[in-house]
Amino acid sequence: MSRIFHIRFITFLIVLTAMCSESFSQIFLFERKQGEDPRNNETIFDSPTRKKIDLNGQWNASFNNSGSSYVNVPFAADFKGSILLQKNFTIPDSLLRSCTFLFIAEGINYYSEVKINNVIVSRNSGGLKLISTEIQENVLSRDNTVSVLAVNTPDNELTLPLACQSNYAKNYTGIQGNIYILAVPKIYINDFLSDYKYESENLIRITNTIHVNTNVIDSLSNTGRTFFIKTELLRKSTNEKVAESPNVKFEAGNYQTYTLTNEFTVKNFDSWSPEKPELYYIRVITSNQDRTVDELAAETGFVNVKIAGRELTVNGKKTKLNGINYYVDLPRFADAVEYLSAERDFQKIKEHGFNCVRIPGKAAHPFIVSICQRTGLFLLEEIPFNEVPSRVLGSERYIKDAVDYAENIIKRDKHSPAVLFWGIGNDFNVTSKHAVNYATKIKEAASLLDRRELYYTTRKAGNDPLEKILNVKGLNITEEDIETIKETTGATDRNKFIFISGYGLPVNNRNRNGSGDRQSVEFQAKLLSESYKAFGQFPGSFMNSFADYNAECPLTGHFEDANYYLRTDGLFDYAREPKYTAGIIKKLLYNQGYQKIPEGTEVEEKKESFFFLTSGLAVLFLFILTLGRIPYLKENILKSFITPKNFIHLVREQSPVTNFQNTVVLFFISFSVSLFISTILFYQRLNDDFDLILSKLAGDGAVKTFLIDVVNKPMNLLGFFTLAFIIFVFLIYLLTVFFSAFSRRHVKFRVVYTIVSWSFLPMIIFFVFGILYSKAVNYGMILNLSFYLFVILLIYCLFKIINGIRYIYEYGAFKSFFYGAVSLIIFSGLMYVYVVIIR
Asked: Which of 162, 296, 548, 731 makes a 20 to 30 Å CA pair with 197?
């Protein structure tokens, strides 16, 4: 059965039944520990020449303007809406007189507006970016109030990420990173971007571009306005100075910005690698008459990465990426990362034989970047450009926001040797001409900041237009059959650097039935181990998840009744307890032998298929019984099929069909349609495309949760679609009754009811298909043809209704089809607004 068929069929069905409503969600807070680990206070801009005014700690908070409470910052909140946060702080008079002040936030999600003393300091969209801005003069005083408005209301037009992402970790809101004010000198280093180039194995050339800002520096006039700037390189482990640049002189004035360059070479250094993560400090010093005015440093390292075809070399050594995806969702802290807890995760990743981590669809928290470069793990870092359709790709504003986001992250983490490549998006429409425009623009912007390659991830294994623009491509594997996986990967270009960016499946963590059961942990271990071996031709592969995590939307294929959001495709469970799979993968990556994975017995959903079959046969028996018990029912059905025009004439003139007969016929038609739909949806409910469409149509709240309960239970599913089709017919009946106001002839409502309900009688043929598919849905072409037959018959039935109404209302042909077309356009327009704009 083709994926295209699934998408078309499921979209068609759910559009008819999706509901437009949202639910109030409870607020869950995840507050980071304060003061227990000094590494939690590490900040990007630490320096001995600067004074940090820490804003972490207790803040007043108001959620959607509904009263006041307290939260400890940094924190994350599982909440859609706005949070207004306020905190008072003081600044000594000595600093007010002698310093310039910078406001720094290392992560606020999603939109933020920062005010100090009721003056706007920053407005920013795009979650978890670095915010660094100079505070205007005369805004600060001794006693101050800072307020942060954080708004998390994702939509389908403007936000990064878009709303209702099915293949995405929970999009928490809050202040997830450290937040503080820096008191800096009147002449200070705003930032610096260092670049290095290997000139030989033992020689690199460093070029450091530095931006220096000044405020009023008249107080420095007694020491002159001549300043010097230089860059030093120190080995982190010993603090030994390895090399330094010559001083560069510049003359400073008030309120100026200077761009300066230091250049120097370094010999006899140690390269960074996962086996030996050697780190250095790159330090920039501004001085005046041998007095240090300002100083700023960053951790860095040097790694020589080259790609040629499908070969990756690191420091001259051929390297394969044994990778794993890491979704930032920690127990107790969510994505307000606590250093020690995250460090334990990455130590386990390292211990299990992995050498690379991918953060899918999100910018890495600053702590994660630090942990990777210190632990010795390569990092693939992405922006939240996830599942973006062609319609949004065509928005210049959206593309600009994505490029700005990427620039911000590259500048923030450029010095890290752990970052291997920068990711520009996941599962967006790579075949669109707009995707080419996006890739071109982001490549141009990124190349001005960093030499590292950009990559994108997609499910499209064959060639796509982006392969001509970007050198690195990630392939997402969603199949759960090893032979199908081999067919998919075999379609890739062997001359391109393509890696497997995700593979695996969610399982029931309590299911130990053996690998014959596709929901068991053993099947997960078998799929991952066999897939890993099959990916030997690729330069790297990434298993789906280190640990279970909460998704952005409720999952159709969930395995925890208490948590519909928990995606269970990790090697570890959410509490970081290893699954059986973790031990198998560890031995596999260390080339150790392991016992054969228990096969168990193949488990099929026999109970559910038996329910559909018995229900269908029972109703079929009831239908046959009804034909013999209700007078004239069989005769009327035959007339409707054999002489439809005479039947309509008879109904208009004599009204021989009772409301009871109408209701009975409508019930059997609706049940037939429901049986057909229910059997297919039940067996396809775990399909990723189905879950994606359901999320887009039903949202990420109570509506989707309700529909999940329907889809996962055969009885609910059968009843739901039976009722849904009855409602669908009833709405058409009400519409036709409305048009009776424009009729020259008075018609009984019972006649209208008969015409509408009996027009759908050809749909009863799907009773046969429903019973057939209750036993097996792998009929391939037959299933596809039955879908097209369903659409054709539905259109035919609607055509019959229009003809019938035209006849009983004595409308002209043009008038009848005009009303029908207007109704269809209005319905289609409402569905477009709901699906595209609202959702």
From this structure: 296
